[in-house]
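Annual report, structural modelling task.

Input specification for the magnesium ion complex:
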Amino acid sequence: MIGRLFSVVSQRAPSLLHRVSLMMKPQVVFVLGGPGAGKGTQCSNIVENYSYTHLSAGDLLRAERAREGSEFGQLIASYIKEGKIVPVEITINLLRKAMEETMQKDEKKFRFLIDGFPRNEDNLQGWNNVMKDKADVKFVLFFDCSTEVCIQRCLERGKSSGRTDDNRESLEKRIQTYQQSTRPIIELYEKLGKVCRVDASRSVEVFADVKAILDKED
Ligand code: ADP
Ligand code: C5P
Ligand code: MG
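The model returned the following structure:
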């Protein structure tokens, strides 16, 4: 019995070792910028041209809000409408699960664009507690966009997005949250020399700049 067990384990061991050696540590780019700056749009462009997986914290939270039986649905709904940042315990679990699932399906998918995170101190602490040792943050891709342009883009998107927060009332709060809580996080990474800034107010040329950054950083 023990002999048989040993032979099963030793037969499996090489493939297990092989898998582990192929499993790369996740490489992460945080994507930040105001509401409507174009984070999602540019992440889609990147995915089409580079081997990155796009994970939007906002999209993951909206999916959790809609998930039947979610114990967090109502809390998430009210935070989103109020433009507030959901407690990180919820968000980090969604991100971690999405990263793990992606890598389990295909071990070559170890590059991630994490869009809309970390948005405040609490987000950053949660990342450091749960993910710091499990993933490398390469840099922050910062879509710098004027408040006026952000508001116009979100109001325009609101005509068809069905989002509960693409309206003037929520937008005022989202912009305030961005200025008060997210900008300091971007500044913190700037001090570490880890921010790549793109002028995102323009209607063209944004992706050309993104490409130049990725080609240089990769
Ligand atoms: P974010 O994810 O940062 O909130 P999105 O990528 O969803 O922003 O873009 C917000 C809205 O602005 C969308 O309707 C999108 O089509 C539009 N948009 C994105 N980038 C640009 C741009 N450079 N010029 C004009 N409109 C843009
Ligand atoms: O990035 P997006 O615009 O999709 O985010 C929408 C909302 O989701 C935010 O205004 C916020 O309420 C919530 N969110 C959050 N924590 C994050 C990302 C998004 O609470 N890290
Ligand atoms: Mg988005």
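The longest helix spans residues 168-191.
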